[in-house]
Structures are given as structure tokens and as C-alpha cells.
Amino acid sequence: GWPLVVLAVLAIFAAVYIARAVLIPIVFAVLLALLLSPLQRRLRRLRLPDLASAFVLVGGAAALFILGVLMLAGQAQHYLAGAPATVQKVSQMLPAKVGPLADLAKTTDAVEEMTAAENAQKPVPVEVQSQDTALTIAGLSSQFVGSAVIVFVLAYFLLAFSDTLLRQALGSRN
After folding, report:
1. Vertex 119, ends 116 and 123: CA angle to 5°?
2. Which residue, of 11, 42, 96, 138, has the greatest Cβ tally within 10 A?
3. Could you give the dihedral angle defined by the CA atoms of residues 77, 78, 83 and 85, in that order, rounded to the nearest 10 degrees?
4. What contacts 158, CB < 8 A, 6 or more positions away?
5. Which residues does 157 contact at the CB level (< 8 Å), separation at least 6?
């Protein structure tokens, strides 16, 4: 009945949600391989073997990707460094609180004063430091780098062995 269908659909969505760390790189790898396959066909006409053409194409795509990430990371770090000053400028441009918002702010301040402990210590500032300086400089997480490596390696194998994979898939249908 329909409750079973609803449970099956929910189970599928839950499985996809849980497996997203693996499925998303696979989807990107397939899309990259499909995007590069016309270029690989042209290189095949120039008598370049599939392994070499896949290496050249995926290596070029990886180099462009790395260049783009490094350029964007530098710009993002520049903008984030100036963010406090920008927030300060914007807060000065906003009009003063009047009406119900001013009353709400006063009420919030009064509640904070009543609930604050008299001998309360200030929170200890926490600074997270990465052990990998290259990732810290570029502003990248290891999960992002790992996903990118999976995408490029899988795209390479999909391009390099696309004919073999296609023959095996068609051969298994007979």
C-alpha cells in the first residue's frame, strides 16, 4: 500500500543523505568525464592513447581547478579580513532604534543584567589551529581536498577506460 511506498521513498532519501559524501564526488566525476569526452575523442583522432589523453585532460582540469581555488581563497581571505570594518560602517549607516525595536533592545539588556552572574568569568577565547600549514594558508579543509582528489581520480579512470566500461556494460546485458 501507500504507507510502504512512503517509507521506501523516505529510506531512499535517508540513504542518499547519509551517502552524500561519496555520491557528490561521484556525480561530479561523471559530469567532468562527460564534459571532457569530446576533447578526448579529438585527441584519439590524433592517435593519442586513451590513458595519455585522459591524463592530459584531467590534469589540465585539475590545474585550472587549483588555480581557481587559490585565486578565490586569496580574495575570500582579503574580504574576510575587512569584514569587521565593513560591519562597523554599515551599523553606523543604519538609523537609530526607535519604537518597538528600541523597547525590545532595552528589555533584552535588562534580562541580560538580571541573569548575569556577579562573579562570572569571561569566556576563554578558543583558537583552532590546523597542523597542516598548506591547507591553512589556502583556507581549504581536508574534506574538500579529499573530495576534489576523488573527483579527479575517478574522472581519469572514467575517461581512460570508458570504452572498456561500455563494452562490459553492454556485454553483461546479453
Report:
1. 75
2. 138
3. 150
4. 29, 30, 33, 165
5. 54
Neighbours of 57 (CB within 10 A): 22
Is the separation of the CB atoms in 146 and 21 below 8 Å? Answer: no
Cβ atoms of 67 and 148 within 8 Å: the answer is no
Q: What is the per-residue pLDDT across 120-158, written as a single tens digit (0 to 9) for each? A: 677 777 776 656 555 555 556 778 888 999 999 999 999
Alpha-carbon radius of gyration of the chain = 27
Amino acid making up residue 103: D
Cα gap 173→38, rounded to integer Å: 26
List of residues 6+ apart from 82 with CB closer than 8 A: none
Of 54-63, 119-128, 157-166, the poorest mean pLDDT is in 119-128
CA distances from 29 to 50, 96, 121, 156 (A): 17, 52, 51, 8
How far is the CA of 33 from the CAs of 57, 141, 159, in angstroms? 9, 25, 6
Question: Which distant-in-sequence residues (6+ apart) come within 8 Å of 43 by Cβ?
Answer: 53, 56, 57
Q: What is the pLDDT of residues 71-118, one digit of tens each?
A: 887 788 888 888 888 888 887 777 666 666 667 777 877 877 777 766
First-residue to last-residue Cα distance in the chain? 35
